[in-house]
Each structure stands twice: as C-alpha cells, then as structure tokens.
Design a protein that fits this description.
With 84 residues, the chain is mainly alpha-helical. Helix content is 68%, strand content 0%. The protein has helices spanning 23-47, 52-83. The longest helix has 32 residues, at 52-83. The chain has two helices and no strands. The chain starts with 22 loop residues before the first helix and ends with a helix.
Length: 84
C-alpha cells in the first residue's frame, strides 16, 4: 500500500460565469445607444442652422441624459424582477 500523502486539490480557477460578467456587454449597448441618440440630436440640431459648437453641446447633453436613464433603468429592472 502506498501511504504517501495526496496533494490537496488546487484552488478552483475563476470562471467566466461570474455574475458581473454580464455587465460589460450591457454597458457597451448603453454607450452605443447613447452615442446614437447624441449623433441624431447633433445632426438634427445642425440642420436647424445652429452653430456647430451649440450643436455639439446639445449632443453631449443628449448623450449624458440617455446614459443616465439607461444606467438608472438597470436597478429598477432588478427590483421589478425580485418582486415576481
């Protein structure tokens, strides 16, 4: 009989199914959607004859507002899912 001690199992390797790993694609979608809204806002504002500097500021405000709304929707959706 072999009585040599068996080595302990190594620590488990981190898996890709970490709960926060879903966050990255959704964050990318939110940023791209916000950029689309900003581009449309800037384009429509510039068609109105607004100077480019003001159109850029309005596009930036549209980007920020859309990004904030998208980020605020995530906790609201989580709360609604917990109720069911």
């Amino acid at each position: 009989m072999n009585s040599s001690p068996q080595p302990a199992d190594p620590a488990p390797a981190p898996t890709a199914s970490h709960p926060n790993s879903n966050w990255v694609p959704w964050l990318l979608v939110m940023i791209l959607f916000s950029a689309l809204v900003a581009a449309c806002t800037g384009f429509l504002t510039s068609l109105d004859g607004t100077p480019p500097s003001k159109a850029l500021l309005q596009a930036g405000a549209a980007f920020g507002g859309t990004a904030i709304l998208c980020l605020a929707a995530v906790p609201a959706i989580h709360q609604l899912r917990k109720r069911h």
